[in-house]
Design brief:
By secondary structure, the chain is α/β, with parallel strands linked by helices. It has helices at 26-34, 36-43, 56-75, 80-84, 97-101, 155-170, 213-225, 237-253; strands at residues 22-25, 90-91, 107-111, 116-120, 124-127, 133-141, 178-186, 199-207. The chain has a five-stranded mixed β-sheet, sandwiched between helices.
Length: 254
């Protein structure tokens, strides 16, 4: 069985005895917020949740949007969508932009209170005439209703841009409280496919709040330093799945 299933990894595990800063990604912070038990089993014990399916179409939309905004970045001009929504800004030019966009490196900051190296890979950054940076995230979906940020599951999107805002501020940048989601919604009402998919694109503003981040990092550090695995979360599908499996296996063995 061990030769077939390599469920536990040995790399990137948190070591309470280590003095080196431990890297925690933006997505790992969200994992902790959603379920401390799953987070602990992943980061401390080395067994992550099963990976989701790759969203190749979403990645294609991200790639094309970046190319499109980069054209205006190079010329120092505002994208027509920014003008249409009355956003007085242009895509931000910086030598570290590609590093910030790289999911493996991103923009980083070592939190002195916890010795955690927080990082996250952004989609885009704009800058307004005051020199304030604006965090921008691209999203893609396809549904009949107009896209919003009102669903409970989209709270993770909001936390995502808030962590980015916090990271940029910690790196010495002045960041506007308002972030933007460039939301692409694949149109489903066309008469025929004709080998192309068209999108309605909407820019949604969101005023970020970052006061939750540092207290959450302290809780993450306390969680990782503990020898006790957190209790299952009754709202976590993975916890409920593990419990159900344990019950079935236990009943079968008995």
């Amino acid at each position: 069985m061990s030769d077939y299933y390599q469920g536990k990894r040995s790399r990137d595990l948190y070591d309470p005895a280590s003095e080196n800063p431990h890297k925690i990604s933006r997505s790992k912070i969200d994992s902790f917020v959603n379920c401390p038990r799953c987070f602990y089993i992943d980061v401390r014990l080395g067994v992550a949740q099963p990976p989701g399916y790759p969203f190749s179409l979403n990645s294609a939309v991200d790639h094309l949007l970046k190319k499109e905004f980069d054209i205006h970045r190079a010329s120092g001009s505002a994208h027509p969508m920014m003008q249409a929504y009355g956003i007085d800004a242009v895509p931000y030019q910086h030598e570290d932009l590609e590093t910030w966009r790289n999911a493996r490196s991103g923009i980083q900051y070592i939190d002195p209170a916890t010795n955690l190296r927080i990082y996250g890979g952004i989609d885009d950054v704009w800058v307004n005439p005051k020199g304030e940076l604006i965090i921008v995230d691209y999203k893609a979906t396809s549904k009949d209703k107009e896209v919003t940020l009102d669903a409970e599951w989209q709270d993770g999107y909001k936390r995502q841009v808030e962590v980015y805002q916090w990271l940029f501020r910690k790196n010495g940048f002045v960041v506007n409280d308002t972030a933007y989601f460039v939301y692409c919604n694949g149109k489903r009402d066309a008469q025929a496919f004709d080998a192309k998919l068209e999108f309605d694109i909407k820019i949604i503003p969101y005023v970020g709040k970052t006061d939750w981040i540092e207290p959450t990092l302290v809780k993450i550090k306390e969680c990782l330093n503990s020898e006790d695995i957190p209790d299952p979360d009754p709202d976590c599908d993975f916890c409920k799945y593990r419990y159900a499996v344990d019950q079935v296996v236990s009943a079968r063995n008995n």
